[in-house]
Amino acid sequence: MKLAVVGATGMVGTVMLEVLAERNFPITELLVVASERSVGKIIKYQGKEYKVIGLQDAVNEKPDIALFSAGGETSIEWAPKFAEAGTTVVDNSSAWRMDPSKKLVVPEINGDVLTKEDKIIANPNCSTIQLVMALSPLHDKYKMERLIVSTYQSVSGTGVKAVQQLENETKGIEGEMAYPYPINRNAIPHCDVFLDNGYTKEEMKLVKEPKKILRDDSFAVTATAVRIPTAGGHSESVNVQFQNDFDLDEVRKLLHEFPGVVVQDNIDTNTYPMPVYAHNKDEVFVGRIRRDESLPNTLNMWIVADNLRKGAATNTIQIAEYLHENELV
């Protein structure tokens, strides 16, 4: 298994290497790949040193799998070049997600859509992944009609520059701004760029991507995405109306039994998901599970996950594991 990590020096790329090591992914040859300005840098992986190479050199090496986390523009230009060389690309950017010819995959939900012919596979948006992990078993049982999601997203979702802005502001240091406003002691209702309809790109990802992953476009979705001053971990307040009524104990049981989901829901002990507890974990945590008393068949819940792990690196690697285990590469 010759594996390339494209964007290896970035925030998600660094976590990818950590997760690959933790999960003992069967690598016989590792290529660490980044932009020209990083070529020649040394990256350590499992006690060995690897020299960063450029994209064309990586294509020439014809890896079996390339895990991409280098941004949409890089992916649009280079993913097809890797695919033409016979490499299966798992891409973490938004470049291919809504392309009807590309699969958008969360392995616990729809890994079965993958075939040997899929040479560019899209990893969903971080907020989408944790959302569908909690919704999938409930949708299967009760059938969603309408979904309202409000996100509380960490600065790490924006990148290193945003993490540095928050750190600078907490220390009272002036520095480069990733956001148009201070993020410390603030909440900015602006994730990604605004679109013509008044929603942000992040909000529209939450509207569109779940339907593709769940293979069902019959339910309605609306979203508001907010950036908050947490260093890692995204949270979501979710209100979902179903066609069929539900029992709360059964809801908790369905979530508890779904792989990769952890129920933290005991108000007597103040047990509920929080980003501080999701840090460096691969699971999706669900709590504050309660009936919406203003509408029939409607549920409220709170979903938290580490956006750099299950929301990005871990899900990408789980796709690679699925490909390897099912002999699709």
**Tally of individual domains:** 2
Q: Quickly name the level 1 CATH class of the largest domain.
A: Alpha Beta
Oligomer: single chain
How many DSSP E strands?
Answer: 14
Query: Helix/strand-derived class?
Result: alpha/beta
Strand residues, percent: 15-25%
Task: Give the full name of the CATH homologous superfamily of the largest domain.
Answer: Dihydrodipicolinate Reductase, domain 2
Describe it for me?
The chain folds into 2 domains: 2-124 and 312-325, NAD(P)-binding Rossmann-like Domain (Rossmann fold, 3-Layer(aba) Sandwich), CATH 3.40.50.720; 127-307, Dihydrodipicolinate Reductase, domain 2 (2-Layer Sandwich). With 329 residues, it is of the alpha/beta class. 44% of the residues are buried. It has helices at residues 11-22, 55-61, 72-84, 107-110, 126-142, 160-171, 201-213, 248-257, 275-278, 309-325, and strands at 2-6, 29-33, 42-45, 48-51, 65-68, 88-91, 103-104, 120-122, 144-153, 220-227, 234-242, 261-263, 284-291, 298-305. Helix 5 packs across helix 7.
